[in-house]
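Notebook B, p. 112. Complex prediction, attempt 2.
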Amino acid sequence: MQTPTLFALLLLLILVAYGTGFSRAIGAARSRGGIRSLASLPSYYGVHTALWCGLPALVILGVWLAFDDAIIRALVLGGVADRPESLSGQNLLYAQIQNLAAGNLVGESTPQLSAAAAHLNSLRNSGQWLQTALILILAVGLGAYALMRVTPELRAREKVEKVLRAILLMCACAAIFTTVGILMSVLFESLRFFQAVPVSEFLFGLHWSPQMAMRADQVGSSGAFGAVPLFTGTLMVSAIAMLVAVPVGLMSAIYLAEYASNRVRSFAKPLIEILAGVPTVVYGFFAALTVAPFIRDLAQSVGLEASSESALAAGLVMGVMIIPFISSLSDDVINAVPQSLRDGALGLGSTRSETVRKVVIPAALPGIVGGVLLAVSRAIGETMIVVMAAGLAANLTANPLESVTTVTVQIVTLLVGDQEFDSPKTLAAFALGLMLFVSTLILNFIALHVVKKYREQYD
Amino acid sequence: MTDQNHTNLTQQQVRERIATRLASRHRKEKIFRGFGIASIAFGVLAVLVLFTDIISKGSSAFVQSQIQLQVNYDPVELGIDKVDQESLAWANFDGVIRAALRERFPEATSRSEKRELYSLVSSGAGFYLRERLKNDPALLGQSETVWVNADDDVDTYVKSLSKSKDGFLGRTSEQKAVWINTLRDSGELKKRFNKTFFTNGDSREPEQAGIRAALVGSLLTMLVTLALSFPIGVAAAIYLEEFAPKNRWTDLIEVNINNLAAVPSIVFGLLGLAIFINFFELPRSAPLVGGLVLTLMTLPTIIISSRASLKSVPPSIREAAMGMGASRMQVVLHHVLPLAMPGMLTGAIIGMAQALGETAPLLMIGMVAFIVDVPHGVTDPSTVLPVQIFLWADSPERAFVERTSAAIMVLLAVLITMNTCAVWLRKKLERRW
């Protein structure tokens, strides 16, 4: 029986369990003078039975589906004599066996491969039937057990609510699992990378050229994994972005909060926030095909030379993307400043701009700084704009008109396409991802810490 | 007398200084306000420039140049004598088209001239004829007038004629331009609505490239994302807001959620690649994995907005329900949750819009392949609309620029619709306590 059919059957069993649990509770109550004698509402008895029927079976099915492919593969390869030692060799062999088993292989095949393919097919069939039998026996058995326990004294509601609470807790822990997953995947692969490339070379090397020979006997580049040009490229693009976004975003927030009438605010605020809803791939397209040629032509007209993939183009467009981010964060912070502070300053004869500059901004400064740090984190992590508008040249330069590359560009470049998963070239992307994750986490932590520490003064 | 003079002088100076400083402060006030207005104007201008640029590049992609041909379904030319599945597969429809072109322009006699002539029509025109013959087998041996798609170079040239008198030749030769103008003058070349753009999958030929496969891929990915992230997000929000004890463990969960919202999206791509594809060996390029990755990305947004919705339900509702003897779970499930659901749905819509526009993590898990077929399930290889935009933007052919912009227009239309629905729902369902 196929897995989707098994799932459907399991759902049906769960519904049947609910119905029988509900009916049995009603029946038991009737002989005692009605549902008032039940410890819980009848629907809770139904849910209780359904949970016993469905939950363990679903868990076992999930575990089975997660691991049965790996077990079958190990058994099949274990039955092949003189199989390759290397992981890639085993992958290739298993792919051949799979194609043979599916009837996709055209041409000659050895008796050994045919036997392995037959073994694979028989294991799959056996596994399927075993899975079906196990799941159904488990569901029906536990459902029957729970049904037997349906009595008026059973506190079904409390048990059901305990299970629901556990489910809610597990969902809340999804964030923990995600973070652990990120750390495990990035850290593990990064450690493999640093076994091939020293950490010091990665952090302080000045040359980035991940091209390297695919085989030991091949003539080719030996590979250079000094990531400093990537860091400086990322910082340059981010700095340009912040130079655009911080003044515009902050002044927009100040104007909307302190000067604008309600009509202007209701018009301008949504319009600026549209920029936040535009996908970054659109910004990348705009930067690559409109802004970059414009900047190149502009530079040429004043006698300078600019690349078609200059850091300036990518930085400008990224800055525009970040404007609403800073604007909305600053707006919240400015509005959090008590009105009494403004009234005091105005009462002493200050103009409105003096009030803003000397009273409101100092009071809101921690929040503004926190917002700017969050924006920096976002700029550093931005991918699509720089993939499309910045270049691939790992230049070590301070000239914004030159082409630079960033950490995120290299991650995409290294991992898109067919790559051997255990080569330093591929694993370098995980090391870069680790750097990205750690730096954005630190920025985020500092930002939240600043906000929390200094905001207390006005609450 | 001396004192009087001094006092008068001092008063005069004081009055002048006061006037000067006041004027200076007013001027600074105006300048400061001007900076604010300039910032707003910059933001608005950025929106207008961005949208104007996209629309001006992309609107022309919704029409397609087509050429009228008198085609003869000659059995000899086609090389078949009956219409069935096998014959259709082998029939020489390109030959039929070329014969029609030669008949229309007999002056093309040399080999190079003929090759130039044949390139007026899209390389996909033969498929169109095959479909017509398949639908109407009686056409075999007959002639009919059909409209077929022009090649993208022809299309580019024709569209540029509407902007300037001479037009943009590009790769179009002078002779070809003469033929094109002859066809235009006689009404045998027209611009029609570009149905191909919405019915085809990806293609290496711009005039045959469409967004249908990417749209379906996006839809499937969004379904997976919504089915996973909304229940999990709402459940997590309920736990954190209503049941979580205040201790270090729940603080850790909250810090984690806030941190996840700040993690760059490409790191989620690395997670998807390492865990879902490499470890669990789920199928590469599939909406299932794409949906899982986007679920993890969208979860913080939904959790945060759901918590805000739950928080906005006044405590008096909870206290009244508990006063009637309801358990904590019943208070939440029967009273708080229904009242908070409108806000949660709004947050979910915004989260889905955010996920729909996401591109970087999907590149990591392989949804960046050349996908021609429309996917039929969540485990079929597919791509999504933003990635399709990314791929087309990378293509060197000029005609892809307008198709990329048109795809962006479709994507933005969907996103604006979703966000507008969210705003409208929020206003409609909002309740004051």
